[in-house]
Amino acid sequence: MPTMSSLHRKALGLFLLSAFETGFDALAFTPPDLLQRTSNSRCRRWSEEILLSEQKGGGQEGEWTSDFDEWIGGDAVPEESQGKAPAPNTQGGLPHFKLDSADDTASEDGLALTQLFEEQRQSTSIVDRTAIQTRQFSLGEDLVLSDYVGNLGFDEVTDWEYYYPEEDGDGRKVVQPNPFDSNQPKRTRVSSGSVVRIFRGEFVGVQGGLLSSKGQDKRVLVKEFTGTLPLQLASSELKALATLQSSLLDEDDDWTSVASARTANLRKDQMNVAKLVGLLQPAPFMGILGEVNLAELEGVMEPNEFYRALGVPPPKPEAVWLVYEYAGLSTVQAYAQPPLIRRAAMPIKKGFFGNLVTPDPLPPWKTRAKYVVQGMVKGAIAALADVHESGLVHRSLGRTSIVLSSKTQDKREAVSIHATLTSNLIVKLSDFGFALPQSEVTTDDPDFVTRARTFGLSIGTGQKINVQIANFAMAEDMHALGFVVLALMLSSLAELVTPEDPVPPTDEDTLQRLLGEIFDKDVKGQFRDYVMNEEIWGYLVELLDEDGGAGWSILDSLVNAREKAAAATTQENLISVRGLLNNPFFS
């Protein structure tokens, strides 16, 4: 009977299974009736079901699409860490070793670990100084809903190991099943169905006017969480973002008392909300502004009126509505497609005299590559570094949990095939429903212990945080980000001759299978050869080969981060994904 041990990396986005046909040595086949299986990891990947709507706001491409297609990335990460003064001999205030170096040597400098972990525990239990767990907005008076965007669920992905029944136990030998036998899958998926509904809205009244007067965006996203699991996700997201957002304020600022008596301090709290919107705009995460006070609507809201306005049933009494900043709905998932195919799908427009106007040609490949590497990849790494340096692990990274936004009013500009200005790009991490403080991974996620043991780490359930635990927890995030980065580059930087050219699959399951089962995690050797053999990736290979293979070193450090963290048993300092930004690939 298989046991379930979860990998718990969840990410907004629908990950489609795709078959990858390849040759296997017949000697590796094992008769199915001789094998039993157990799960060595299980993860949850967010999926989305989006309403198709016409793009609004005069987008550059003007195609018909789901406005939620692009819900995966975020505002551009500032060039420097937000208001953080790094301590001497550290990156962003944390001791580290660089995973992009050949020998992965550790820094000898750093804070005393006991002191560091104590500071992390204190920071993760910090008072919510931006008051997002206290502030409640009135629907109609403070904000209104404009439309229903879609809903979110997640796929539970299980990776299986197979073994002979007579070898059951810790010392059993893992064997490879027949890759063509559907009864012996290496990975399976189960969908959760809808767990979160998403609405778009905007601030009105005094709050809306105040934001407009400051030139700030008064639009918001509202997520509805209903049911036991969704309410747990809402609670975790609030706690994680309370920690992250508190770091945006000055040390002596605390808005909790003002927000808790909002009626008496309305003007002051409205000013705080306007200030928070400004602080969140360049922040490397999707921030929360507060919660909708649904209790005010009991016995007042007419269900049929709600349905007629938005086309969906009204909220249930136990629901929680969280109000988020508006960074658009564009994600890595929307950009991670060959641009020539996206251009071919754009509708032909008509000119002033009825003449047909074809879409503008694509920017040069090198210009697009700079936008992807210096903008998206670098921004995502910097954003994850900020999360880790706040004492948290995301545990749900995927293509749809990285929002790509723009400093302009049209947030979709960030994922346009013609976008090239990294100065306008904002990269944000979103969906912190499964996030945890690093100090709590062994107590709140028992499957973390199981996963760590599959990499040879001796970690016990409830064990007190130490370097080994923290490093492996952060390495799991880096591993997940690595597959996002890999898929992004293989898809968006594929140089097709015609839109009909075949493109090898770049979904997560295929890439996991290629690297884990076929190429033995050899990113710089076997996997590079595989990529080099495809003509559409010729320019990409040249880019990754520059500076002695600096790009391949980045990919290897990310996708194999768990192996590197597990192998560094004598490591005395915390790893830092920020160290990768020193790689010449980003220079």
Molecular structure report:
It is a single chain. This protein has about 575 residues and is an alpha+beta fold. The protein is globular. The N terminus is likely disordered.
SS content category: alpha+beta
What is the helix content? 25-40%
Specify the overall morphology. globular
pLDDT averaged over residues: 80
> What characterizes the major β-sheet?
9 strands, mixed
Number of strand elements: 17
Helix count?
A: 16
Rg value: 24 Å
Q: Unreliable runs, pLDDT <50, ≥5 residues?
A: 1-34, 52-111
Question: Separation of termini?
Answer: 51 Å
Portion in strands: 15-25%
Keywords:
disordered N terminus; 587 residues; 16% strand; 17 strands; alpha+beta; two-stranded antiparallel sheet; nine-stranded mixed β-sheet; 16 helices
Short recap of the structure:
The chain has 587 residues and is an alpha+beta fold. The protein has 16 helices and 17 strands.
List the helices and strands and how they pair.
Elements: E1 36-50, E2 53-54, E3 64-65, H1 113-124, E4 136-137, E5 143-163, E6 174-175, E7 187-191, E8 196-203, H2 205-213, E9 219-225, H3 228-246, H4 256-260, H5 266-280, E10 288-292, H6 303-310, E11 320-325, H7 332-335, H8 339-345, E12 349-350, E13 356-357, H9 365-389, E14 392-393, E15 402-406, E16 425-429, E17 436-437, H10 441-444, H11 446-454, H12 467-492, H13 508-518, H14 523-532, H15 538-559, H16 561-567
Parallel strand pairs: 4-10
Antiparallel strand pairs: 1-5, 2-3, 5-6, 5-7, 5-8, 8-9, 9-11, 10-11, 12-13, 14-17, 15-16
Helix pairs in contact: 2-5, 9-12, 12-15, 12-16, 14-15
